[in-house]
Specification:
This protein is α/β, with parallel strands linked by helices. Helix content is 32%, strand content 17%. Helix 7 (203-209) links the parallel strand 9 and strand 10. Helix 1 (9-26) packs across helix 2. The radius of gyration is 17 Å and the shape is globular. The chain starts with a strand and ends with a helix. It binds fructose -6-phosphate (F6R). Fructose -6-phosphate binds next to loops.
């Protein structure tokens, strides 16, 4: 694991964007795995600036998002499809037809999961997967559990995830209780992984995922066995390691 320590969120976002931009420049047909949540927002803002100011070219890039809330249509303001358009896709020259996000309202959700995994394979797999991390250790929505699933699947969100994500909704009751998420296998098959974490509430979990033990109770701990992982953390986290 390559760990990069930065001063603050601004620098974290710069690092995140520069690692993604490097991938986009060296491989204009790259397949990027993308995340939502608060952590990558600054990274997406920087990528938008790089596109507008330096012509960073997304025209042949393909993207697969990690997850989507079950039951939210793509035009729902809290859906991850909407998030991606608002924060990245609408502001760069990516072709929307090359951006994939699980369909949270598919009539046959099992079929949708299978289709999503097949699509990732068809496009040659993910070159660079961007990840945030839940304070409980989830990546994508692979929650702490007795077992971790390999492929894309429907998952019951953990209570603490529902509570954490309620900040984006009017009330905790409105937060969907399930999501469609890429599995641990799809994430681990990515050629490179970039995990971004900041703020002291992520310190405990970051120390667990780099401590040399691997447990399904800390899903992100499996990243220790991936050959090309970069973790960018801020000073607040590093001070507590
Ligand atoms: C989002 C995702 C989640 C988030 C995690 C951290 O697509 O897959 O694993 O990365 O919940 O969220 P933030 O960044 O809001 O702390």
């Amino acid at each position: 694991m390559n760990i990069i320590v930065v001063k603050n969120y601004e620098e974290l976002s710069e690092q995140g964007a520069s690692i993604i931009a490097r991938e986009v420049k060296t491989n204009p047909n790259a397949v990027l795995g993308l995340a939502t949540g608060s952590t990558p927002l600054g990274t997406y803002r920087k990528l938008v600036c790089m596109h507008k100011e330096e012509g960073l070219d997304f025209s042949s890039i393909t993207t697969f998002n990690l997850d989507e809330y079950y039951g939210l249509a793509p035009n729902h303001e809290q859906s991850y499809a909407y998030f991606m358009r608002r924060n990245l896709f609408n502001h760069v020259n990516i072709q929307l037809k090359n951006t994939y996000i699980p369909n949270g309202i598919a009539a046959d959700i099992l079929e949708e999961c299978k289709r999503y995994d097949e699509l990732i394979e068809e496009k040659g797999g993910i070159d660079l997967q961007l990840l945030g991390i839940g304070a409980n250790g989830h990546i994508g929505f692979n929650e702490p559990s007795e077992e971790l699933l390999i492929g894309t699947h429907l998952v019951d969100l953990a209570e603490n995830t529902i509570k954490a994500n309620s900040r984006f909704f009017h009330s905790v009751e409105e937060v969907p209780k399930q999501a469609v998420t890429m599995g641990i296998g799809s994430i681990m098959k990515a050629k490179k992984i970039l995990l971004l974490a900041c703020g002291e509430n992520k310190a405990k979990i970051i120390s667990k995922i780099i401590d040399g033990k691997c447990s399904t109770k800390v899903p992100a701990s499996i990243l220790q066995i991936h050959p090309q992982v970069t973790i960018v953390i801020d000073k607040e986290i590093n001070d507590q390691l």
